[in-house]
Write a structure and sequence with these properties.
It is built from six helices and 13 strands. By secondary structure, the chain is an alpha+beta fold. The strands form three sheets. Strands 1, 2, 3, 4, 5, 8, 9, 10 and 13 form a nine-stranded antiparallel β-sheet that branches. The chain has a two-stranded antiparallel ribbon with strand order 6-7.
């Protein structure tokens, strides 16, 4: 009987073993088939995405060309308009990026604010080189050219901005602050926002020109947009033996001053403009625009303390501008 059982076991066992092996092979083949099908589906999706991406790019190029054609038909001398359309499409965040695309003309361009998530129009100075960076492409946030715009305004106007970027212009304290937050550099430990350099250009009615650059420059919106950092200075619009003409003070207007601010009569103050005043201030580039025959006025006009030290004629200022640029 025992021998009979053993014989039966020896005959039946291979059937179970073979069945198990066949089942395992079937599962493996089924999985391989599924993997192959999934791979084909993924490749198909990739091809679809590539095709749609190309279609979108082609459609975008066609639309831009159509816009250019419409502008050429409707707007005479439309080259500058076409440049601005291209700039909007490219979302330029810096004048230097505009420069890298072959646009070398100093004019107004739409600049995209990364933090504010919107455009503002800024005059890009593509001609003035930098002592610090040895490059051009400056974002101008303050400009005096012809006296057409009244700078005797209140706090809200100075925060939000006013004027014409092609002429007399103030970009606004908030916009200027956002412009100083455009450059984010990646490091091994994370990201850090670098501060830009500041350049101030001055030109008198006699043609005398001087400039000064500060490395770096920043303002603090939580403390009345005070200048919170002015580093090393370079240029010709200062005297090495004297303090700088622009100091880290709170910004003040006739309707908004900080509790710690005080102003001395017959000195630059908020009675006719907004500026970083304190005591008897050393500058006020937002003062009253003066005539060709005027001398620089400390109490009312566009004022720069060191001007009397570097320009023997002490003529009133015909041009003044403030602009920023990133080191990299």
């Amino acid at each position: 009987m025992k021998w009979l059982c053993m014989i039966l076991i020896l005959k039946i066992a291979p059937l179970f073993i073979n069945g198990g092996i066949e089942t395992g092979i079937q599962i493996e083949k089924s999985l391989q088939k599924k993997v192959i099908n999934l791979t084909k589906q993924l490749l198909h999706c990739r091809d679809l995405i590539h095709v749609r991406k190309n279609r979108c790019r082609v459609t975008g190029d066609i639309l831009v060309k159509e816009i250019h054609l419409v502008i050429r038909r409707l707007v005479p001398n439309s080259d500058s308009t076409l440049k601005k359309v291209s700039a909007i499409r490219s979302l330029y965040t810096d004048c230097n990026y505009v420069l890298q695309t072959g646009r070398y003309v100093s004019e107004v361009y739409p600049i995209w604010l990364k933090v504010g998530y919107r455009f503002i129009h800024i005059y890009c100075d593509m001609e003035s080189g930098s002592h610090i960076t040895n490059k051009t492409g400056w974002k101008t946030f303050q400009q005096r050219k012809n006296g057409k715009i009244n700078f005797n305004r209140g706090w809200d106007d100075y925060v939000n901005g006013f004027g014409n970027p092609n002429e007399d212009y103030w970009a606004g304290l908030e916009n200027t602050y956002l412009l100083t937050r455009q450059n984010e550099i990646g490091f091994s430990y994370g990201y850090r926002t670098t501060r830009p350099n500041l350049r101030i250009d001055l030109e008198g009615w006699d043609g005398f020109h001087a400039y000064v650059e500060y490395k770096p420059f920043s303002i603090n919106p939580e403390e009345n947009y005070s200048i919170s950092g002015l580093g090393v200075r370079f240029g010709t619009a200062f005297h090495p033996d004297y303090r700088g003409s622009i100091l880290p003070n709170d910004f003040s207007t006739f309707d908004h001053t900080s509790e710690t601010s005080f102003f001395i009569s017959n000195c630059p103050g908020p009675h006719n403009s907004g500026w970083w005043f304190f005591g008897c201030g050393y500058s006020n580039l937002n003062g009253i625009y003066q005539r060709p025959t005027d001398k620089m006025s400390k109490s009312d006009g566009i004022y720069w303390r060191h001007w009397t030290l570097i320009n023997p004629n002490n003529t009133a200022l015909k041009l003044a501008s403030m602009k920023i640029q990133y080191y990299r």
